[in-house]
Amino acid sequence: MVKKQIQIQDHVLLLKHKKLDDKALEGLLNKYNISPKQLPKVYKKDPALREIEDVKAGDIIEIERDSPTANKTKFYRVVVDG
């Protein structure tokens, strides 16, 4: 029996993920006066990160979700090995 490969990036419940560039990262850290160590973590092997090129430990991922009250909200995770 052949297992069917699921295209997770097309799933309706998957939130939009993108890797922050250096300029956006600097702005984020300055805006909230935080360091990357203070951000929640996401594993490098997380299926949602498969489609993002060159993801490595230490990268910051911006995740965007719909909100009934704020239209769209963004939250951030730091990539860790695992």
Give an account of the 3D structure.
With 82 residues, this protein is of the alpha+beta class. It has a single domain, classed as Eukaryotic RPB6 RNA polymerase subunit, CATH 3.90.940.20. It has one helix at 22-32; strands spanning 16-19, 41-43, 60-67, 71-80. The protein has a four-stranded mixed β-sheet with strand order 1-3-4-2, with no helix packed on it. A hairpin with a 3-residue loop joins strand 3 (60-67) and strand 4 (71-80). The N and C termini lie far apart (30 Å).
- What's the CATH architecture? Alpha-Beta Complex
CATH topology: Eukaryotic RPB6 RNA polymerase subunit
- Tell me the Rg in angstroms: 14 Å
Overall residue-averaged pLDDT value? 87
* Count of discrete alpha- or pi-helical segments spanning 4 or more residues: 1
First CA to last CA: what distance? 30 Å
Strand content: 25-35%
Count of individual beta strands: 4
The CATH class name reads Alpha Beta
The CATH superfamily is identified as RPB5-like RNA polymerase subunit
| Strand ordering within the main sheet | 1-3-4-2
- SSE order in H/E notation? EHEEE
The helix content is 10-25%
Largest sheet: 4 strands, mixed
Overall domain count: 1
Can you tell me the overall shape? globular
> Would you tell me the structural class of the helices and strands?
alpha+beta
Task: Detail the poorly predicted runs.
Answer: none
